[in-house]
Amino acid sequence: MLAKHAIRNQSFWWVDDFGFDFCRGFAVLVERGVHRVMHVNAFETRTKIMNKTKLKKQLSYMIPQIKLVMIREEFEGTKPIRTPADITKYVEPLRHLPEENFVAFHLDAKNNIIGYQVVSQGTLTASLVHPREVFKSAFLSNANSIIVAHNHPAGSLTASVEDIETTRQLLRAGRLLAVPVVDHIIVSFKGECSIREMHPKIWAELDDPTYP
Fold it and tell me: Rg of the chain's alpha carbons, rounded to an integer?
């Protein structure tokens, strides 16, 4: 009985040990399996994050992004500009300035003025104007065309050689950029003068196929 009990006990403990070992092994296997699954899931997650990070990096420019925002003052709007006389009241401030200012008025498709930009402020005798500066704001405001104006503080309403050349330069740029220059107005305390009316051949040159 003792032997049997011992065997029984041994068998019991053996079974118990086996069962414990089996359970412990199963638990270890399960734990390892879970750990492996968790490890695989974590690896896949890290891979996805890395792939997204890598993709985001590949799709990102390595330079700062410039965002343009247009802030426009509210106003009631204007009537369509059909003749030089229609813009007279809008160039009024130029009459009173002591130095040359060059201003670009932006028009929509119906010839309504939608805004203006002071392109340059010069000396008593000259105003530096570059087409890049004239048309930059015109693009930002989605202008369909522009009218430019500048003042002669000395009072002359006669276009100078520089005025004519500046007008030609802007007309060429406007033709290339599809933002035509409707007119160039000279303003002084004596009144206004339309270069288009005084020198229509400058605009006629644009229709000449031999014109560069």
Answer: 40
pLDDT under 50: residue ranges of the chain:
1-37
Phi-psi region of 76 (alpha: psi -120 to 50; beta: other; left: phi over 0): alpha
pLDDT of residue 44: 65
Nearest to 182 by CA among 156, 157, 206: 206
Q: Look up the pTM and report it.
A: 0.68
Give the β-pairing of 101-107 and 145-151.
antiparallel
Picking from 196, 199, 168, the residue whose alpha carbon sits closest to that of residue 182 is 196
Calpha distance 167→174 (Å, rounded)? 10
Structure tokens that stand for 8 in this block: 């029984």
Distance CA 179, CA 49 (A): 48
Which sign does the torsion angle of CA 59, 61, 62, 65 carry?
negative
For residue 198, give the H/E element and its range.
helix 195-198
Q: Which pLDDT score is estimated for 41?
A: 59
Q: What is the pLDDT of residues 17-32, one digit of tens each?
A: 444 444 444 444 444 4
DSSP calls for 89-158: GGSGGGGG-SS-EEEEEEE-TTS-EEEEEEEEE--SS-----HHHHHHHHHHTT-SEEEEEEE-TT---S
pLDDT confidence of residue 69:
75
Closest of 192, 163, 1 to residue 85, by C-alpha: 192
